[in-house]
Design a protein that fits this description.
Strand order of the largest sheet: 1-2
Structural class: mainly alpha
Strand content: 5-15%
Helix content: 55-70%
Order of helices and strands: HHHHHEE
Number of strands: 2
Largest sheet: 2 strands, antiparallel
Length: about 140
């Protein structure tokens, strides 16, 4: 089976190696850019792994899960280079209605705004050109 799988995925692997991100990874990518790359991958893998786990598809093969390792990499980067993961994630399902999604969005917006105001009042935000610096 592994030989057949390799044959079926060979073209995709070749194409992936030609991608800009893959070349950057092989040459060395700046930490903030790598963190962003890993974070985007983590969100996708975590969603897939949660769904696969709920469907019982990972029983006996839990070791193939990538999300925990990606999370560890992100945390290590954040510890060394500062916290770059300030994204608010809103968990949702397809069973909720549009009104609930709007309410979740408004609640998230309120929390983000409240955090920004709090940081500003604590004099922890500094504008430097087109960049915003937030002190811990």
């Amino acid at each position: 089976m592994s030989t057949k799988l390799k044959e079926l995925t060979w073209e995709n692997h070749q194409n992936a190696e030609r991608m800009v991100v893959a070349r950057k990874l092989l040459k060395g990518m700046p930490a903030p850019e790598y963190h962003k790359f890993i974070y985007n991958q983590y969100v996708q893998y975590e969603a897939l792994e949660v769904a696969a786990r709920a469907a019982g598809m990972l029983e006996g093969i839990e070791g193939i899960c990538r999300a925990p390792g990606m999370l560890a990499d992100m945390e290590e980067l954040e510890e060394e280079f500062g916290d770059a993961r300030r994204t608010v994630i809103v968990e949702s399902t397809t069973t909720i209605g549009i009104e609930d999604l709007i309410a979740q969005g408004q609640d998230t917006e309120s929390r983000v705004l409240a955090r920004a105001v709090k940081l500003h009042l604590e004099h922890r935000v500094l504008l430097n050109g087109n960049r915003t610096i937030v002190f811990k």
